[in-house]
Amino acid sequence: MEMGGLDSDGRKFKNAEEMWREEVGDGDSQKKSQWYNKGIKYWQGVEATMDGVLGGYGHVNAADIKASEDFLNAILAERFPDAGRGRRLVALDCGSGIGRVTKNLLIRYFNEVDLLEPVLHFLESARVNLAPENLMVSELHKAANFYCVPLQEFTPDAERYDVIWVQWCIGHLADDDFMAFFKRAKVGLKPGGLFILKENIARTGFVLDNEDKSLTRSDSYFKELFNQCGLYIYKMKDQKEFPDELFAVKIYALTTEMPRQGNRPRSKRTTNRPAIIR
């Protein structure tokens, strides 16, 4: 990526390649393992609560879920007959944490939701939060599988998912593992299925968080990676009603086939914010 960026200490990088060479090395598996282990260690020290997983901003949950639900409803209405009500829908929640997105959104629309989370105490909390007695959904909707596996090591079952939801976790992957994950995960989509990626957006280039080893990418950075993954933007939307001090957030719906011209979204400028939501 020929775009500059900086880290959370203010250090500037000429481009992403320079940053990645320093952080994960050039084919140095040990150094890359250290990168991922530091990220996991950070989250292992975070309490398994709404406020914990949202970096002290638990109050944004309602606005986050509302925007995501509006986006999901539009996708289901456009992609599936009768908005998917006539078929058994299955979703994968990547970086699921304590099951916040699954409980507040996905489980109401999907008959089965699998959760993927590498931090064990988050996943254990999700099991409790998503136990049938703690849900206000019919018995036709359930949390099916709980995988304690990091994104870079996960391969889904073939054609299991209508939607693979990836929120506030892809920043922990180095670019090569980002692309490898999506290429593997394509296999897990049913025909017509798609990815929904919701992430913090840097104004330009990237911002590296030295504390939890995550990267906030710009919209153009994401689009370059999508292109290299063979993914197409079907629809995208900016998150509204978040505190001004936070990064901008964007939601992308990504497909493996080129959308018709009428579905192509217009790009919008986003603004950088001086803090990072977890």
UniProtKB/TrEMBL annotation:
Annotated GO CC locations: cytoplasm
Locate the region Disordered: 259-278
The enzyme's E.C. designation: 2.1.1.244
Q: Is Methyltransferase there in the keyword field?
A: yes
InterPro entries, per this entry?
MeTrfase_NTM1, SAM-dependent_MTases_sf
| Residues that hold S-adenosyl-L-methionine according to the record | G95, R100, L151, Q152, Q167
UniProt KW Transferase keyword: yes
Give the catalysed reaction(s), semicolon-separated.
Answer: N-terminal L-prolyl-L-prolyl-L-lysyl-[protein] + 2 S-adenosyl-L-methionine = N-terminal N,N-dimethyl-L-prolyl-L-prolyl-L-lysyl-[protein] + 2 S-adenosyl-L-homocysteine + 2 H(+); N-terminal L-seryl-L-prolyl-L-lysyl-[protein] + 3 S-adenosyl-L-methionine = N-terminal N,N,N-trimethyl-L-seryl-L-prolyl-L-lysyl-[protein] + 3 S-adenosyl-L-homocysteine + 3 H(+); N-terminal L-alanyl-L-prolyl-L-lysyl-[protein] + 3 S-adenosyl-L-methionine = N-terminal N,N,N-trimethyl-L-alanyl-L-prolyl-L-lysyl-[protein] + 3 S-adenosyl-L-homocysteine + 3 H(+)
Q: Which UniProt keywords apply?
A: Methyltransferase, S-adenosyl-L-methionine, Transferase
Query: What molecular function terms (GO) are annotated for this protein?
Result: methyltransferase activity; N-terminal protein N-methyltransferase activity
What's any GO biological process attached to this entry? Answer: methylation
Supply the enzyme class, top level.
transferase
- Lineage: superkingdom: Eukaryota
Gene3D superfamilies, per database record: Vaccinia Virus protein VP39
Q: What does this protein do?
A: Alpha-N-methyltransferase that methylates the N-terminus of target proteins containing the N-terminal motif [Ala/Pro/Ser]-Pro-Lys when the initiator Met is cleaved. Specifically catalyzes mono-, di- or tri-methylation of exposed alpha-amino group of Ala or Ser residue in the [Ala/Ser]-Pro-Lys motif and mono- or di-methylation of Pro in the Pro-Pro-Lys motif.
Family, as annotated: Belongs to the methyltransferase superfamily. NTM1 family.
Name of the protein: Alpha N-terminal protein methyltransferase 1
Organism this protein belongs to:
Capsicum annuum (Capsicum pepper)
Q: Taxonomy-wise, where does this protein's organism fall, top ranks first?
A: Eukaryota, Viridiplantae, Streptophyta, Embryophyta, Tracheophyta
